[in-house]
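ok, trying the design again with the full structure, not the truncated one.
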């Protein structure tokens, strides 16, 4: 029996004090009566008890047949969809709203209790961990190697390179430290400049600041949402040491053109591919174009290790330098002898075990996400107020998060929409706030940024994993309704 079922159920006979304590603990004003097999028999509310006391019809021992026990409580089948459960819990049109609802099987055995607080809603992303992940993680723990030592770290790195079709992979503690490691490997530091786009997660710019270099922020292209090639050319200086293009929302940037500029100027290309695992650029998987590509395995990414990242280098000698740096700069031949001042960016063996299992399932994840993306695209095709993620002939999106632009919406209106949808059980995410709009980064942002500001204020990411077509229909209908209501209010 789960904790929530225990908090909301009681077996009779029971003294009055015990019943009142449970009702007080669950904060919903009632308790459900069950038998030894957890079968739902009835309910007792604080109102029932109050009325019983008034009538002086209650003794110290509560009996099932007492008048204050409701023998016909409201319940739903445990397979009931979330839309229906939400209707009975909070819909204003429903006069008979309930604070909690038992979910039962055909024999009325309680399987779960739904409240508005604990109801499973539509999260932006769901974990998908199976038997292989648990088995490999347990094997790693059982081996005794739970730190960064252990066979799974090496297996994961080699498996990742095989998946990409080349490169030299180095595991790290996060996508952020993968970027830091790449920058340090190429000697980027104080006095150097790194060019990056204005529209990205803060890890991009933070990694540059962390190594002591100066970020040079430029705008993005409206048709790709990625770094503007023309802006790169204008901002290159004698101090420029690297370009950090971001494959935003899994959408690859114009990599060949960036590499061409970098070769001409003899500067490095460090790809922020945190969201782009599985995406392709000109028929090849993202990750092998620049000098290094950095991936994230955070819980909402294509594959996950909880926290974790990977830096994939084009040249073996750079991966060897990175491996040295991430291990405190300690010599592999002379224990506790440090050849450089390094740091600790090491992934643990159990994390790598989970990552390897997830990597083995990546095609399964991609197919699942593609069905979800395709269904959204099909349904949104007739919506004039929706603009899709960029598409082109030379790349394929990694299908990280299904993200749209809501035409004529700005930040305040978009954020109101997010709150309205959350009240209906639908978690959405705003677009990344462009760097020039945050006080801490403004000094790195010179000039105007019309496209990144526009996209930042009007983008919205929808639930993208482990949802059915029926779930998507509900999400789409609620999104449409709320947008229409907000547009009417504006008029």
């Amino acid at each position: 029996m789960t904790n929530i079922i225990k908090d909301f159920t009681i077996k009779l006979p029971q003294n009055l004090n015990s019943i009142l304590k449970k009702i007080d603990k669950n904060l919903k004003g009632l308790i459900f009566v069950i038998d030894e097999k957890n079968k739902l028999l009835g309910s007792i509310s604080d109102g029932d008890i109050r009325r019983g006391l008034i009538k002086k019809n209650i003794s110290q021992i509560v009996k099932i047949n007492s008048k204050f026990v409701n023998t016909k409580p409201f319940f739903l089948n445990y397979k009931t969809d979330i839309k229906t459960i939400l209707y009975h819990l909070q819909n204003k049109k429903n006069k008979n709203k309930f604070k909690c609802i038992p979910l039962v099987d055909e024999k009325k055995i309680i399987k779960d209790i739904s409240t508005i607080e604990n109801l499973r809603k539509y999260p932006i992303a769901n974990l998908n961990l199976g038997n292989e992940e648990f088995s490999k993680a347990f094997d790693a723990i059982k081996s005794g190697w739970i730190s960064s030592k252990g066979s799974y770290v090496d297996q994961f790195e080699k498996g990742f390179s095989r998946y990409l079709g080349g490169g030299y992979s180095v595991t790290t503690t996060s996508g952020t430290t993968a970027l830091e490691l790449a920058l340090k490997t190429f000697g980027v530091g104080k006095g150097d400049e790194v060019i990056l786009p204005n529209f990205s997660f803060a890890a991009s710019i933070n990694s540059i600041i962390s190594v002591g270099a100066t970020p040079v922020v430029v705008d993005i292209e409206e048709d790709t949402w990625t770094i503007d090639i023309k802006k790169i050319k204008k901002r290159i200086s004698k101090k420029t040491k690297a370009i950090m293009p971001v494959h935003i929302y899994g959408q690859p940037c114009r990599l060949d053109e960036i590499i061409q500029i970098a070769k001409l100027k003899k500067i490095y290309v460090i790809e922020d591919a945190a969201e782009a695992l599985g995406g392709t650029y000109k028929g090849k998987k993202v990750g092998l174009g620049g000098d290094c590509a950095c991936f994230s395995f955070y819980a909402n990414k294509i594959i996950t290790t909880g926290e974790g990242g990977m830096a994939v280098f084009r040249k073996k000698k750079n991966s060897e330098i990175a491996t040295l740096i991430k291990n405190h700069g300690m010599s592999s031949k002379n224990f506790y002898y440090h050849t450089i001042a390094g740091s600790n960016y090491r992934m643990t063996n159990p994390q790598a075990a989970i990552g390897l299992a997830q990597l083995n399932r990546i095609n399964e994840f991609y197919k699942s996400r593609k069905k979800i993306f395709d269904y959204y695209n099909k349904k949104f095709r007739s919506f004039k107020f929706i603009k899709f993620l960029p598409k082109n002939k030379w790349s394929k999106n990694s299908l990280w998060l299904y993200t749209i632009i809501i035409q004529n919406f700005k930040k305040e209106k978009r954020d109101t929409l997010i709150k309205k949808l959350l009240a209906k059980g639908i978690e959405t995410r705003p677009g990344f706030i462009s760097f020039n709009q945050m006080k801490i980064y403004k000094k790195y942002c010179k000039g105007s940024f019309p496209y990144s500001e526009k996209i930042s204020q009007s983008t919205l990411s929808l639930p993208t994993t482990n949802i059915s077509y029926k779930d998507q229909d509900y999400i789409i209908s609620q999104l449409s309704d709320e947008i229409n209501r907000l547009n009417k209010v504006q008029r």
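Keeping the full-length input from now on. Confidence is low (pLDDT under 50) at residues 58-65.
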